[in-house]
Backbone:
């Protein structure tokens, strides 16, 4: 896997794009994903109205006590079925004084987030939709850790300080890719990582890849934002390493 791409992550959900649409660059490794996070609902719910492709959880407004979005655990007025209020713990450490990790929204909170944005919220699939949300976040953090491993001499245990959803803001890389391939990401997050006292911003673009064996594919393009010389150096080194592996093979020292 290259240092600035994770994926393709395979998901057994029908949300393929038109066959004539060019795809963004593919990354070599993948992982199974349980649900749709693209532009269409699962094939078994294709008669339901389509939802927006962006993440429904508003990461711009967070509770300063736990650095998580304030999402109610109460039933929504449009809701007919009772949903779980249990929240799953992530593997992502929070940048606080205690040794805690970030919590993912419960199915009830996820439903409320969808309803607040007037997005389709099929109650019977809410558990699965939460699974995909969590799956993509775990994948993104794993990619962040690969970048951060370059700085183990500075910090052996980076933590996530906060995150920001920016679905309508194209990053410079995404804009360039859209010019080249005609494909835009369906979502974007900016993650702010605490590197033992230094704040480092990461940009994550979420793409739908080329389906494989009729299975949808996701690509996460994760890289440090070029906010300082150190991050620029990391990006240049990653490009050089990718070029060496492309022309001389994995692990090449040439």
Residues:
């Amino acid at each position: 896997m290259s240092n600035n791409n994770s994926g393709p992550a395979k998901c057994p959900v029908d949300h393929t794009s038109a066959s004539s649409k060019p795809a963004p660059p593919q990354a070599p490794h993948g992982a199974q994903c349980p649900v749709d996070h693209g532009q269409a609902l699962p094939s078994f719910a294709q008669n339901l109205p389509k939802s927006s492709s962006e993440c429904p959880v508003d990461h711009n407004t967070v509770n300063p006590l736990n650095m998580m979005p304030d999402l109610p655990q109460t039933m929504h007025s449009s809701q007919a079925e009772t949903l779980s209020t249990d929240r799953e713990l992530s593997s992502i450490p929070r940048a606080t004084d205690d040794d805690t990790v970030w919590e993912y929204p419960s199915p009830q909170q996820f439903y409320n987030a969808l309803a607040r944005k007037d997005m389709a919220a099929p109650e019977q699939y809410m558990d699965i939709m939460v699974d995909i949300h969590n799956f993509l976040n775990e994948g993104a953090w794993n990619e962040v850790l690969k970048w951060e491993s370059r700085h183990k001499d500075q910090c052996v245990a980076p933590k996530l300080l906060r995150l920001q959803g920016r679905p309508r803001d194209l990053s410079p890389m995404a804009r360039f890719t859209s010019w080249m391939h005609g494909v835009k990401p369906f979502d974007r997050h900016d993650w702010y990582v605490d590197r033992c006292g230094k704040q480092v911003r990461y940009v994550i673009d979420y793409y739908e890849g080329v389906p494989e064996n009729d299975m949808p594919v996701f690509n996460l393009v994760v890289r440090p934002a070029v906010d300082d010389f150190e991050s620029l150096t990391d990006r240049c080194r990653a490009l050089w390493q990718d070029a060496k592996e492309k022309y001389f093979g994995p692990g090449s020292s040439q």
Observations:
- Confidence is low (pLDDT under 50) at residues 7-53.
- The longest strand covers residues 198-208.
- The first helix runs from residue 107 to 116.
